[in-house]
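Ligand-bound model needed. zinc ion.
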Amino acid sequence: MPYRDPNARKEHQRRYYQEHRDKLRKQQAQYHRENRERLQEAEHNYYQENREEILKKKAQYYQQRKTDPEWRSKRREYSRTKMAERRRKNPEEARKEGRQSMQRYRQKDKVAAYAKLVEWRKANPKRYRMISQRASAHTRGKKLGAKGKFSTTYVRRLLKKQGCKCAICKKPFPPKKTPRRFEIDHIVPFIKGGSNYPINIQLLCPSCNRRKGSKIS
Ligand SMILES: [Zn+2]
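Prediction:
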């Protein structure tokens, strides 16, 4: 039945599609299977003929998206979950991949990479401090034969759990000062057999940390 009104026609098409969806999808899939090469060739030809135009549009689209904060945070979230998934599935492989991509990145432009790193440190003093403290705890622990590891995520969680207060004197860490002054302490020190497992970690203010030294508390 022909429709004069385009809206009515659309509505009819929509209803028709819904009623016959499974059948139509099957037909479509079959058509694609049977004509795969021909379709691919057509697609390829179309791309070749309109290459400039397509690439320009793509570049425009990405440029626009790059500056969209919502998209950026979504993208970051997505790559984080993907990375976590990969780590869960195959931690050894993921670590290797991470190292390799870091190496590639560094070799690409060492100077620029270093400048970027310095910039990042300046922009993220708290995180940088946390990362470097954790790294030195791990190196020191390894040297002294201590077992275990803790993550910076754990340190952040601990900071929240301690209410941003020192675990010994309970005074709040200076809040407005950056970097926030807390130090990662091992409850049982390495020289007394302490580990780098999260359970052995607490956050202290610098003066308590100095006073504690290598005592257990
Ligand atoms: Zn303290």
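Residues 166, 168-169, 171, 204-205, 208 surround zinc ion (CB under 6 Å).
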